[in-house]
Hints:
The complex is a heterodimer of chains A (about 110) and B (about 120). Chain A is an all-beta fold. Helices cover about 0% and strands about 50% of the residues of chain A. Chain A has no helices and 11 strands. Chain B is mostly beta strands. Helices cover about 0% and strands about 55% of the residues of chain B. Chain B has strands spanning about 5, 10-15, 20-25, 35-40, 45-50, 60, 70-75, 80-85, 90-100, 105-110, 110-115. In chain B, strands 2, 4, 5, 6, 9, 10 and 11 form a 7-stranded mixed sheet that branches. Chain B has a 4-stranded antiparallel sheet with strand order 1-3-8-7, with no helix packed on it.
Amino acid sequence: DIQITQSPSSLTASVGDRVTITCRASQSISNYLHWFQQKPGKAPKLLIYAVSNLSRGTPSRFSGTGSGADFTLTIRTLQPEDFATYYCQQTYTTPRTFGQGTKLEI
Amino acid sequence: EVQLVESGGGLVQTGGSLRLSCVASGFTFSSEWMSWVRQAPGKGLEWVANIKEDGSEEYYVDSVEGRFTISRDNAKNSLYLRMNSLRAEDTAMYYCAKDGAFGVQNYWGQGTLVTVSS
């Protein structure tokens, strides 16, 4: 199985800050890396698919980069509604695997 | 608008069985792979299984292989997860999700909670 290591596990930031979350896969996964946002008590929501493609409704302050096995989610100019938990996921092979999550707190 | 509505969760004893259902609307169900993803209380996301559009292929995470069965009824726009030999570690919110390009889960239901207890 492909392991995904996501860091940091938690992050404290302020409105207006720029933050970066990283995911490293245990092998190359091409561009099969995606990012989700989850708020308490809610289902996850797809933010970015295939490394850098914004899902419908995702604000442009979110961006994704990377290739091979190393990937990054960047949020520019944090807004109050961005405080949530973020997960990356690979779909290069089954089983699909998620990173451990990053809790972004104020 | 894509909608996925799960049902069938509840409290079940260790070793028991449960069948989850998910009714889909707002897209052509028979043309899409579908998945189940779960989340134990306070923990991260775990992909459980997926199934091809016509039901001819199924894939599972190792921890449920042989105990869980994913299936679908395209005439009823419904996805199912039959769970047997349930263990305490299967306690989780179970989400039904539609797979999109690149196999990513691009739409999710609200989830149904399964609690396994002795």
